[in-house]
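Field: sequence (string)
Field: structure_tokens (string)

Example rows 1 and 2, in order.
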Amino acid sequence: MPRKKPKVRAPYKMVSPPTWELARAAYLGGMTAEAVAEKYDIGLHNLRQTIARKGWSKRALADARALAGPGGPPVPAPVAATPPSPEPASPPAPPITVDMILRSILDVAMVRAGKAIIAGTGAEASALIKATREWVTLNAEVVTARAEVPETGAPLEGFSPGDQATVREQVALLLMQESWAKKT
């Protein structure tokens, strides 16, 4: 009876922490374990053990994102302020405008898209950029529709000021709806 050849063990490889971070990002970004192991020269068994041991499951990532909600992870509570100094009071901060809010939303979306690209999740980055583009377009249409609605006039007489604002908003929405119907 012929003797079986002994199995040859795979060479022992040390993997640095930055390589593990890249492998984790690639795996959670959608690559298969086999592809990640080949790309970063990690043993497949070693990679699968690390995935199981450290909980790098795609399901856990999806659950974490669902808990974080559409706005991302919750913002930490502000730290208690230090007692005021005897210095003269500074002038009050300018009021927050809609443009300031819009810019901050766009900045956050672009930062998240950049981080997604760095993490190797191009699909997420692309989705963020597309959603931001659609949001900017929609906001421009809302501003245009609101500008077309008169501030006063016969249709608004008899309504309280609060109700007039509601009626103007409804008319703006109807104007937007009409413009969308014309596009299709």
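Row 2 begins here:
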Amino acid sequence: MGNPIGMINNKPANLIARYSWTILFVLWVLHLVLSVRDFFPPLQDICLCLSGGQTPILSSTGMTWAQLTSTSPRLAAFLASTFVDDGISGVGLAIFGMIVSATGYRKGERWAWYVTWTMPVGILAAQLNIY
């Protein structure tokens, strides 16, 4: 009867399976870049979302980072240390994700597939905890 999808020897599916690790790797590199941003608290004033969006600092305090540091330096120092802690965690998680995707996931090992799915679930749980 032939292949129902019309592919010979299932080659496109093999290509997806062969290179899907690169998509995960690129996402973890993006996570790394965004986590490094936390080491520099003044960069919190830069909104990476849609135009007209507010940064988390602006939406929660009603002030920019520069305004917050001038009006409440102790709170700004506390938030800066929290950002650095988040940056350390994010960088560590991103490096771990890149290693898993470039090694075990790339080879198709089952443990890597499960580990790869636990990380986004954990990130989602942490984000839901914020709100």
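free_text_note (row 2): The chain is about 70% helix and 0% strand.
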